Amino acid sequence: MFAVLGPISFRLITYFEGVSNKIGYDYAEHAVIEGKPRLQWIGDDLQEVTIDLLFHVSYCNPEAELAKLRIAGSMHTALPLVYGSGHYVGMFVVKSIKSTTRQTTGSGALVAITARVTLLEYAGLGGLLGAIISVVNNAARASGAGSNTQRGGASASPSGDPSSVSSSSVVRQ
């Protein structure tokens, strides 16, 4: 398993095609007389994570997998994103889903679909709590302590079973 977004699992070998992260910083630009504008840092932008996926009938039901993503998006709910290593990334909402049909049968049944899912960091209470948990877990890993402790605020089990993510870790907007 590559990652878990709430109850949705992304498998490394079969589904995962790539991931990109976008972190930005926001600046205000102030005009000055007879000179170049000055910049003032306002704050950090929300993190964006984009995951490229491939669903094929040889290992899944493409329509069902795409439906899971659409349901997660339509819930308008922040979900914990946890990598397979146990690293808790934070709370994220589904910002967009772009799917492309790659192959169908003669009757139009889906054979292969690619999907690009863009997640946007949720920086509410769940995001703050997750950031604190992530810092504590990363510090414990760096020091070699806590080898028997549970990793991640939204806790994915060592087996990566997404059903182990507690419902209390879901934050409604």
Describe the structure.
The chain is of the alpha+beta class. Helices cover 18% and strands 42% of the residues. The strands form two sheets. Strands 1, 2, 3, 6, 7, 8, 9 and 10 form an eight-stranded antiparallel β-sheet that branches. The chain has a two-stranded antiparallel ribbon with strand order 4-5. It is extended, with a radius of gyration of 19 Å.
The termini sit apart by 28 Å
Cα-based radius of gyration, to the nearest Å: 19 Å
Structural class designation: alpha+beta
| Helical coverage, percent range | 10-25%
What is the element string, with H for helices and E for strands? EEEEEEHEEEHE
Number of DSSP strands?
A: 10
State the oligomer: single chain
**Mean pLDDT over the full residue set:** 78
Number of helices: 2
Sheet of most strands? 8 strands, antiparallel
Query: Uncertain spans, ≥5 residues at pLDDT below 50?
Result: 146-173
Strand content: 35-45%
Outline: extended
